[in-house]
Amino acid sequence: MTYLWCFLIGGGICVIGELLILLTKLTPARILVIYIVAGVILSFCGLYRPIVELAGAGATVPLTGFGYALWEGTRKAIEEQGAIGILTGGLGATAGGIAAAIVFGFITALITEPKAKHE
Amino acid sequence: MDKKERRQQAYQRLVEKHSHSSNFAQGLFRAFWVGGVICVIGQCFADLARILFEFTDSQAAGFAGICLIFTTAVLTGLGVFDKLAQYAGGGTIVPITGFANSVISPALEFKKEGFVLGTGAKLYVIAGPVLTYGISTAAVLGLFYFLYGVIFP
Questions:
Q1: Distance from CA of B122 to the nearest CA of A (A)
Q2: What residues of chain A score a pLDDT lower than 70?
Q3: Does some domain include residue A40?
Q4: Is the pTM of the predicted complex or chain greater than 0.80?
Q5: Residue A97 falls within a domain, yes or no?
Q6: Relative to the CA of A91, which of A44, A80, B3, B52 has its CA 20 to 30 Å away?
Q7: How many domains is chain A built from?
Q8: A73 contacts in B (CB within 8 Å)?
Q9: Distances in Å between the alpha carbon of B148 and those of A62, A78, B37, B153?
Q10: Could you tell me if residue A119 is inside a domain?
Q11: What residues in chain B have per-residue pLDDT under 70?
Q12: Using a CB-CB distance cutoff of 8 angstroms, which residues of chain A are in contact with residue B153?
C-alpha cells in the first residue's frame, strides 16, 4: 500500500513542478530553490510529516523531502543540544546526501568526458 | 480565394491549439509517471536498508537518497540522464535526482575550464543557491523554535 501512495504522491509532487515549468518562466534552479524552501516551511508547520508517514519515499525523495530532513534535523538538534542545534542540525541531517552529490559529481567529472549536445 | 485562405488559417489555429494542449497533458503525464517511478525505486532502497542493515526511518531515507544520487551520477556520466530529463521534465528535476544532476552536470561541463575554477567551483552553480536558501530558512525557523521553547518551556 505504501508503494501505491509513494507512486501517486511522488508523481503528484513532480506534476506540480512540471506545471511550474510549463505555466511560468521559472528555470529548474529556481524550482529547486522553491521546493526546498517550501519543504522546510511545510515541515516547520507540521504539514509535511503526515505526507511522509503516508507516502514514505514518495515524500522524502522529491526535494521538498530534503527540506523536511533539514527541518527535522534542526528541530531534533535544538531539542537535544539547545541553541547550537539551530546551526548544526540541518546540515547534520542532510550531510550524507550533500556529500554524496559532491563526491560522486567530482568523481564523475574526473573519469568521464562531457557528451556533445545535439540541439 | 480569400475565403479559402481564411479557412486554412482557422484550421491552422485549431491544429496549434490542440497540439499545444496535448503537449501540455503529455508533459504532465510524463512528469507524473517518471517522478512516481523514481520515488518507488527510492522506497525499494529504503526498505532494503531497513531489512538488511536495520536502519531507522530517517537513516533509510538518507540511504535511499544516496543510492539515487549515485545512480544519477552513473547515468549522467554515460550521457543517458540528459535524455531522460528531456523526456520527463519535472519528473526528473523535482526528485533528489534533479539536485544530483544539477551538481554533476556542471562539474562535468566545466571540466575544460580546469579542475579548480571549472569543476571545483561550477559544481555549486545550482546546488549553492538551493543549499543557501534551504539552510538559511531552516536556521531562521530554528531560531524561532528555540526562542519559543525558552519563553514557553
A1: 11
A2: 116-119
A3: yes
A4: yes
A5: yes
A6: B52
A7: 1
A8: 138
A9: 30, 11, 40, 8
A10: no
A11: 1, 17-21
A12: none
Q: Select the residue of A91, A102, A114 nearest B111 (Cβ to Cβ).
A: A114
Name the grid cell of A107.
568523481
Residues with Cβ within 8 Å of residue B82, at least 6 apart in sequence: A115, A117, B76, B105
Task: Write down the ipTM of this complex.
Answer: 0.91
Best residue in A4, A18, A24 to probe B by mutation, most B CBs within 10 Å? A18
| Domain enclosing residue A30, as ranges | 2-111
Q: What nine digits make up the cell of A25?
A: 518562466
Say if residue A118 is exposed, middle or buried (CB neighbours under 10 Å; 0-12, 13-18, 19+).
exposed
Q: Within an 8 Å CB–CB cutoff, is residue A29 touching chain B? A: yes
Verify whether the Cβ–Cβ distance B139 to A87 is below 8 Å.
Answer: yes
Interface check A82 vs B, CB under 8 A: yes
**In chain B, which among 38-57 make CB contacts under 8 A with chain A?**
38-40, 42-43, 45-46
pLDDT score, position A118:
46
